[in-house]
Design a protein that fits this description.
elongated; Aldehyde Oxidoreductase, domain 3; 275 residues; alpha/beta; TIM Barrel; six-stranded parallel β-sheet
Length: 275
Amino acid sequence: MKSPNDLKDTVRIALSEDIGSGDVSADLITSTSIARARVISREAAILCGTAWFSEVFRQVDDRIRVKWQFADGDSIEANDVLCEIEGPAWSLVTGERTSLNFLQLLSGTATQTKVYADLIKHTNCFLLDTRKTIPCLRTAQKYAVTCGGGKNHRIGLYDQVLIKENHIIAAGSIAAAVAEARRLHPTIKVEVEAETLVEVEEGISAGADIIMLDNFSIESMIEAVALSNGRIPLEASGGVNLNTIVRIAETGVDFVSVGDVTKNVRAIDLSMRFM
């Protein structure tokens, strides 16, 4: 799993937000004081965000050294020592909160993804993320989804066409919208959001690459799978939660997209303590 290209910029912005004109509390520590610390998990989780954590300390003070005991995607348990850190004490306390923010949030995203992915691993359905991410952390959270066993849907509005109700109305029909998308963006995938079985067939006939079943009932999803008969991948979206995802995946759809893994994420309880 490769870290996103914007990782350094994301860390820089986060540090600027926290440090501002300077860490006035760190001024209490002498510049010559060297310290060691370690990060401990308070609960079981899937670890994610090690590169962001390390980059925080690299940008704060490149004399700091971080030694990891686990890697992204690893399962961790309560009381596990995740890493040890050594360097100027004032630099460690300055980077502590920002580094933990990244590690806790991204581990939370990966952990929640793993919960969902495990529920449907007995099917042929894959878990997809959405664009419902925390602002400015899109690529970081999508990376975390892959660490938890999910797959990335489109990253933004630029890498895949998604034809929705308003696009269809403006174009005049699903066929016209797909044709125009092919003309304007011939090298990227075109997905059609369908609200009825009739629109599923129209999307297939128009030559879309994938059909999204928007808030379909379980019964309608089963009908859509039969109608498609393997001609085109189907994605289920809307109303997906821990209580519904298994029934949805078992209908035979190819993908199920879940906003919950990124927008309702709970940070994992981690702490950094000087040794």
